[in-house]
Automatic annotation (TrEMBL):
PANTHER family: 39 KDA FK506-BINDING NUCLEAR PROTEIN, FKBP-TYPE PEPTIDYL-PROLYL CIS-TRANS ISOMERASE FKPA. Its EC number is 5.2.1.8. The keyword Isomerase applies. Pfam families: FKBP_C. Residues 38-123 form the PPIase FKBP-type domain. It catalyses: [protein]-peptidylproline (omega=180) = [protein]-peptidylproline (omega=0). Belongs to the FKBP-type PPIase family. The keyword Calcium does not apply. Signal peptide: none annotated. This is Peptidyl-prolyl cis-trans isomerase.
Length: 123
C-alpha cells in the first residue's frame, strides 16, 4: 500500500476474514485542522471490497476530491474520520453494519469494505 497523500493509494488484497469491528489505522498523521463529528470534509478516497479486493469507488478515478458533511456518510466514516487531521491518510476497514447494512437494497450490502481516505480540508 502506498502511504503518500496526494497520490492514489493501492490496497493489497487482505488475507483472512474481515474483522467484525471497525478498524481505524493512521497511515500518515496529518498536522492540519482536526475533523470533528459536525465537520464537512474534503477528501480523496479509494474504496475496495474486503473479500475480492475489487475497487468499487474512488474519487481519484474521477479526478477530483469530494466534500461531504460527515453526518451524511456511512456510520464507519462518521466514527472513523473524527480525530483525523488535514494532511493525513487513514485506512478504515468497515464491517457491513457500519457500511451499507447487512442485507437489502444497496449493491454493497452485506460486504466489509476497505477505504483509504486522504483528508484535504475541514469546514
Amino acid at each position: 500500500m502506498t502511504e503518500t497523500p496526494l497520490t492514489k493509494p493501492e490496497i493489497d488484497a487482505p488475507e483472512g476474514p474481515a474483522p467484525a469491528d471497525l478498524q481505524i489505522v493512521d497511515l500518515v498523521v496529518g498536522e492540519g485542522a482536526e475533523a470533528v463529528a459536525s465537520s464537512t470534509v474534503d477528501v480523496h478516497y479509494l474504496g475496495v471490497d474486503h473479500d475480492s479486493g475489487e475497487e468499487f469507488d474512488s474519487s481519484w478515478s474521477r479526478g477530483e476530491s469530494v466534500n461531504f458533511p460527515l453526518r451524511a456518510l456511512i456510520p464507519g466514516w462518521q466514527v472513523g474520520i473524527p480525530g483525523m487531521k488535514v494532511g493525513g491518510r487513514r485506512k478504515l476497514i468497515v464491517p457491513p453494519a457500519q457500511a451499507y447494512g447487512t442485507a437489502g437494497g444497496h449493491p454493497l450490502s452485506g460486504k466489509s469494505l476497505i477505504f483509504v481516505i486522504d483528508l484535504l480540508g475541514v469546514s
